[in-house]
Write a structure and sequence with these properties.
heterodimer, A: Ubiquitin-like (UB roll), 5-stranded mixed beta sheet, globular, disordered N terminus, disordered C terminus, B: 620 residues, alpha/beta, Leucine-rich repeat, LRR (right-handed beta-alpha superhelix), 20 helices
């Protein structure tokens, strides 16, 4: 399912009642967009179009693919909560500084993306944008597809990429405190457990950290039922750090990570997902059956590949599964 | 005992704080007898010949001691220098609405005898992830400054501040008479910090952790309270997402004879609640914890929960129900008739489960719930709760396109049944102007009206028109309105109404609304009492921002995110108004070609731009 981003500019609506076709940047004339001003969001969608997969951060098993990444634009949101909708940022078209206005609109986020483009693909922005124009326009002007799904809520409610894609939501809207969202999420999952007859243990939040990322996240392991789902979710949560694009967070994270990120991506991602089990040992994720994993996992960590080398032998000892490739990122 | 006394004014010899006439029992160092009038003159004071005003000021001190209201105090301090000085000496509680409006040093220089600090940090929109973490609002500089200046500090009440375990440790160490710690929507600390407070603050009366993020450091903090009888009057830890040692809790409650308010977290089961209630029938406010069983429900020998509630004759405020098992809800019947406050906002209660409960709650004044009670449940509220003052309906499914179980039907019913309504927060998926207009006519006491139609730009679902007339009626008819939050499809007309009629509005929240700069101009030019303005995703630009320059020094803050502001304009304003701190959040350093402002947060400050701004904040 793919759908186009529509930005609604009410002034526009008032003056021209028909729907205006816009690209995802909220601009109706993409050719005037300078590639250097493409915001981060472009990276994700365009990336898939440009066969970026070889260098993107992925937490899946080597041969696996994240489901629905390429076509379902709406799910490519995740990142940090601060990456926001483009549509309301549209400056007035009547503004004399229309060209600068275009540049302004796509701002807020970093230059880094265009560098990434240049390095990896050599394809300029406008090419990428044109690729984005193919999805159909949706009919309702009022429904805008936006970027950042609120992680807690999405984990709690859908918990998997295979769930029918909920309409992507705007950051911070409706205005419910994340504390309340998290609480509702955990009580929802508990009730579900009980209905199923399983002992209601409630949510199982574990902290997820990543080398170089400025802050931790938490995930509720009970909202996933396979490694696939977990890896996709983590991928979404943390991909911004690898591309260094996530707006505000990226600005911080980028400083710390710049030297490893781009290079690592170039050479095929070097991130490995590990967890601390209840014995306090750090293990590579993916060796044990999922149920056992959820019972023993205390913390998750996305490590640089080089740091995780020491884990490999131990994992081989503990693992009985000769097929079990550790989750490579 | 206090060392390093700060430089005192000439009115005080610096030996001891004056007697606080309202609480003379406090063990101040070097305090003399509670005799009121004369003892306020510090020993060794200057003679009246040297300082003729001194006698007057001492008299003033006696009088101003009794002033409680801070607006009265602010007014008194403006009378003359002498009054200013005396007021500064006699103020015991200080409220700081924006922690960056002044530095801690300035606070301690002006006010010498503070016992109680109320401090607010981040702007409210930070709650909705519109601001990156690590923005600031650190408690650390405040606690370290006050540790030296106010050793007799008793109360700290923080909202949206970043508090670390070290801060809590310093607090616990520095204030031997510390009594009340209230942390609302705070973060940065964990159960280890709480443990330190519990252990070292021997006079602790109030420990309230409300909607804060408390990390689970796996510390048994409940066991850290001292072994003997405590002074605890209020213990609220419903937001602590960590298991607790129930035996220790039971023992704590048992040795806290003054405990009136107890709010448990979801790790306390129904059976455990039952035991606690039997041991604490004097409670007036109860947060019930999970309200469910740990294990599979046992068929035999189930405790008589209703009896436990029946024994709690004093409970007037009930909350919790974090993992409600609805079949046990009837256990609360015995207390319903006394309830003045009921919070079901974490409980997915259906109308059928709900109606029998609410039917008994005739005295209810404050009611929070999820929209799972549906319009039907709201009708029941309207039929019974004639004394209702505050209503909050939260969405069970907080998405834009979810099913909306509540609508204008519920709102209308409430407006007809609850004529004394003063404050409403209502999340819904569809609304009509007619219902909002009716509410404005039926509920003239409204001071807070916050309507959140969850679909952005959604019009009146019956007429298809914008929601202008509804909100217009609210500002026009509700003459006491001080706080307004708007939503739905709104044109500039709605804002014209606000500017024309909203003369008492202090707080205004706008999202996805308006057509042009004129809308914001109407508000900035028309609302003289506006203090807090928060706007997101609305087409307001430089012209509008400039039109408010005459107001910004009189406002606590302005937040505008995803609007149409340019850096140039913000810079101009920053230059024109040197006491205004203009923060642009989320922009790059190499900025000159990036003129767009994603988030603007500006506020007045006596001490200039803050020194702790993170990289993603640019102060113009």
């Amino acid at each position: 399912m793919s759908y186009r981003l529509l930005s609604v500019d009410k002034e526009e609506l008032a003056s021209s009642p028909g729907l205006k076709e816009r690209n995802y940047l909220g601009l109706s004339d993409c050719s005037s967009v300078d590639s250097s001003t493409i915001p981060n969001v472009v990276s994700v969608g365009a990336k898939s179009n440009l066969n970026f997969k070889a260098t993107e951060l992925r937490l899946g098993l080597p041969e696996s693919q994240s489901p629905e990444r390429e076509t379902d634009f709406g799910l490519l949101s995740p990142r940090t909560p601060d990456e926001k909708l483009l549509f309301p940022l549209l400056p007035s078209k009547d503004n004399a500084s229309a060209t600068t206005g275009h540049k302004n609109v796509v701002s807020g986020n970093k230059r880094g993306f265009s560098d990434t483009w240049d390095e990896f693909s050599g394809v300029k922005g406008s090419g990428g944008i044109n690729l984005m124009l193919s999805p159909k326009i949706t009919a309702t002007a009022n429904k805008d597809v936006s970027k950042c799904v609120q992680e807690e809520r999405s984990h709690a409610k859908s918990g998997s990429n295979n769930a029918p894609a909920a309409k992507a939501q705007v950051v911070g809207w409706p205005p419910i405190r994340s504390y309340r969202k998290n609480t509702m999420a955990s009580s929802t999952s508990k009730n579900t457990d009980e209905v199923d007859g399983k002992p209601g243990l409630g949510a199982l939040f574990v902290k997820v950290s990543m080398d170089g990322a400025p802050y931790l996240r938490k995930v509720d392991l009970r909202t996933y039922s396979t490694y696939q789902q977990l890896s996709s979710a983590l991928e979404k949560m943390f991909s911004c750090f690898t591309l260094g694009q996530c707006g505000l967070h990226g600005a911080q994270g980028r400083e710390r990570m710049s030297e490893i990120k781009l290079k690592d991506l170039l050479h095929g991602s070097e991130f490995v997902l590990t967890y601390e089990d209840k014995d306090g040992d750090w293990m590579l994720v993916g060796d044990v059956p999922w149920e056992i994993f959820t019972e023993t996992c205390r913390k998750l960590k996305i490590m640089k590949g080089s740091d995780s080398i020491g884990l490999a032998p131990r994992t081989m000892e503990k693992s009985k599964n000769k097929d079990g490739n550790p989750l490579r990122v | 005992m206090p060392q390093d006394r700060p430089q005192m004014s000439e009115d005080d010899d610096g030996q001891s704080p004056p007697l606080d006439l309202r609480s003379a029992a406090i063990a101040d160092p070097c305090s003399s007898s509670p005799n009121k009038s004369r003892n306020c003159i510090p020993s060794g004071a200057m003679t009246s010949q040297a300082f003729p005003d001194h006698v007057l000021e001492n008299v003033l001190e006696n009088v101003l001691q009794f002033l409680d209201s801070r607006s009265d105090r602010n007014a008194a301090s403006l009378v003359c220098k002498s009054w200013w000085r005396v007021e500064s000496l006699t103020r015991s509680e200080v409220f700081i609405g924006n922690c960056y409006a002044l530095s801690p040093a300035r606070l301690t220089q002006r006010f010498k005898r503070i016992r109680s600090l109320l401090l607010k940090g981040k702007p409210r929109f930070a709650d909705f992830n519109l601001m990156p973490p690590d923005w600031g609002a650190n408690f650390a500089p405040w606690v370290s400054t006050m540790a030296k200046a106010y050793p007799w500090l008793e109360k700290v009440d923080l909202k949206r501040m970043f508090v670390t375990d070290d801060d809590l440790a310093l607090l616990a160490d520095s204030f031997p008479g510390f009594k009340e710690l209230i942390l609302v929507c705070c973060e940065g600390f964990g159960t280890s910090g709480i443990a330190i407070v519990a252990n070292k603050c021997r006079k602790l009366k109030v420990l309230d952790l409300i909607e804060s993020e408390v990390s689970d450091d796996e510390v048994d903090w409940i066991s850290c309270f001292p072994e003997d009888v405590t002074n605890l009057e209020s213990l609220a830890f419903d937001c602590v997402e960590a298991p607790i040692n129930f035996k220790a809790l039971e023992s704590l409650v048992g040795r806290s004879p003054f405990l009136k308010k107890l709010r448990l977290n979801r790790f306390v089961s129904l059976e455990e609640l039952h035991r606690l209630l039997l041991g604490a029938p004097q409670l007036t406010s109860l947060g019930t914890g999970s309200f469910s069983h740990d294990n599979a429900p046992q068929s035999e020998q189930e405790p008589d929960y209703a009896a436990a509630f029946r024994a709690c004759k004093s409970v007037v405020c009930l909350s919790g129900f974090r993992e409600l098992m609805p079949e046990y809800l009837p256990a609360i019947f015995p207390v319903c008739a006394n309830l003045t406050s009921l919070n079901f906002s974490y409980a997915n209660v259906s109308p059928d489960m709900f109606k029998p409960i609410i039917h008994n709650c005739h005295k209810l004044q404050v009611f929070w719930a999820l929209d799972s009670i549906c319009d039907e449940g709201l009708l029941a509220v309207a039929a019974t709760c004639k004394e209702l003052r505050e209503l909050r309906i939260f969405p069970f499914d907080p998405r834009e396109d979810s099913e909306g179980p509540v609508s204008e039907v519920g709102l209308l019913a409430i407006s007809e049944g609850c004529r004394n309504l003063e404050s409403i927060l209502y999340f819904c998926q569809r609304m009509t102007n007619a219902a909002v207009i009716t509410m404005s006519e039926n509920c003239p006491e409204l001071t807070v009206f916050r309507l959140c139609i969850m679909g952005r730009h959604r019009p009146d679902h019956v007429t298809g028109k914008p929601m202008d007339e509804g909100f217009g009626a609210i500002v026009k008819n509700c003459k006491k309105l001080t706080r307004l939050a708007v939503s739905g499809l709104l044109t500039d007309q709605a804002f014209r109404y606000m500017g024309e009629y909203g003369k008492l509005i202090r707080t205004l929240s706008v999202a996805f609304a308006g057509d042009s700069d004129m809308a914001l101009r109407h508000v900035l030019e028309g609302c003289p009492r506006l203090q807090k303005l928060e706007i997101r995703d609305s087409p307001f630009g430089d012209v509008a921002l400039r039109s408010g320059m005459h107001r910004y020094y009189n406002m606590r803050f302005v937040w505008m995110s995803a609007c149409r502001l340019s850096k140039g304009c913000c810079r101009d304003i920053a230059r024109a108004m040197p006491n205004l701190v203009v923060e642009v959040i989320g922009s790059d350093d190499d900025e000159d070609n990036r003129d767009y402002v994603e988030t603007l947060y500006m506020y007045r400050s006596l001490d200039g731009p803050r020194k702790d701004a993170p990289k993603f904040v640019t102060i113009l």
